[in-house]
Design a protein that fits this description.
Layout (H helix, E strand, L loop, with lengths): L7 H8 L6 H5 L8 E3 L4 E3 L13 E5 L1 H4 L7 H9 L3 E5 L5 H5 L2 H7 L5 E4 L11 E2 L5 E4 L5 E3 H10 L2 H4 L5 H36 L4 E7 L12 H5 L8 H8 L4 E6 L6 E2 L28 E2 L5 H23 L1
Parallel strand pairs: 3-4, 3-5, 5-9, 9-10
Antiparallel strand pairs: 1-2, 6-7, 7-8, 11-12
Length: 327
């Protein structure tokens, strides 16, 4: 096992980045075997490859889709079985490219591997002039330092100033507030997209091994953006990412793979102990997410069948990079 060096204060600061409570939330359904990557203060899905010597593994980075929420065998593991090379799954809940740029010790580990698979990550995890993200989806308002989930943060931007929205004119007040909000919302979305692209450029420059860029979604990169609701604005995961952004990033990488699938979704949830249907309480991840009924189905994260589809399209590209690196 390679031991990465960091100071105690650095490790403590990085430990605060670990926001995901997926292990506690989902333990009845799947055990992610979350394990701290030595000297980073960060927890990732285990088990890690037996050895992390140079050239003896490949790495995968991304958000919860790469980690594999509610999936016993996520695509990194499936690809590893097919190509005969262990995978280091560095998928991290809520992560965007900015997260990995902020953690050069992870890049050092990635550069010890044979190649890297980079999932197209969400734009809502990118900092802008209003919110500091640290590369994660749980945002911090720069104005007062308060924390807010990205969904709520962008909903507030979309709805406009409360001083107008709360005027005693009902729908007229709400409609006027939205119209006032549009220019500012568009500015922030533009900043966020440009920041995401810059984070991807920095990430690619830091990585020394070949890169496969993976689009893994229920939608194509070309989506019809709207501003009536946050869902329309974001689109399906990866939120805010569009065709032109994908086109720019794929030119930076050695290979591009696209998996558009909704096979097996919604996914009913069953206890791994009894095989009986169960529900999952999202508040066991973060209290602010505990709105509405507990989940009886996974409607958001890729299903196991979708992971199989992603692995199927990844294997040829990964095999080619593996063969090239061995030549």
């Amino acid at each position: 096992m390679v031991i990465l060096k960091s100071t105690e204060s650095e490790a403590q600061a990085k430990a605060s980045d670990h926001l995901s409570g997926y292990q506690a939330r989902d333990l009845e359904v799947v055990d992610y075997r979350m394990t701290e990557l030595e000297s980073t203060g960060l927890m990732f899905r285990g088990p890690f490859p037996d050895g992390l010597d140079r050239g003896e593994f490949f790495s995968c980075i991304g958000a919860a889709q790469t980690l594999g929420c509610f999936c016993q065998k996520p695509y990194p593991e499936l690809v590893a079985e097919e190509i005969g090379l262990p995978a280091l799954n560095l998928g991290y809940g809520g992560a965007g490219p900015e997260f990995y740029v902020r953690h050069p010790e992870l890049i050092e580990m990635i550069n010890r591997g044979r190649f890297l698979v980079v999932q197209a990550m969400s734009g809502r995890s990118q900092s802008n002039s209003i919110f500091e993200s640290g590369g994660l989806e749980y945002l911090r308002r720069k104005s007062d330092g308060s924390r807010v989930g990205a969904q709520e943060a962008y909903r507030e931007l979309l709805e406009g100033p409360s001083s107008i929205r709360n005027l005693p004119l009902g729908k007229i007040s709400r409609g006027l507030a939205r119209r006032v909000a549009i220019p500012g919302l568009q500015k922030i979305v533009g900043e966020t997209r440009n920041g995401w692209l810059e984070s991807m450029r920095q990430l690619v420059k830091m990585v020394e091994v070949p890169i496969v860029f993976l689009w893994f979604s229920k939608r194509t990169p070309d989506y019809a953006e709207g501003i009536k609701t946050v869902r329309e604005l974001f689109g399906e995961f990866p939120h805010l990412i569009n065709q032109s952004m994908v086109g720019e990033v794929r030119e930076m990488c050695d290979a591009y793979v696209e998996c558009v699938s909704d096979r097996g979704s919604p996914q009913p949830l069953f206890s791994r102990f009894t095989g009986e249907p169960v529900t999952v309480d999202p508040s066991n991840d973060r209290p602010d997410l505990g709105v509405g009924e507990p989940w009886s189905h996974n409607i958001y994260y890729p299903s196991p069948e979708m992971h199989e589809d992603a692995a199927k399209v990844l294997v040829p590209a990964c095999s080619k990079l593996l063969q090239t690196s061995m030549a």
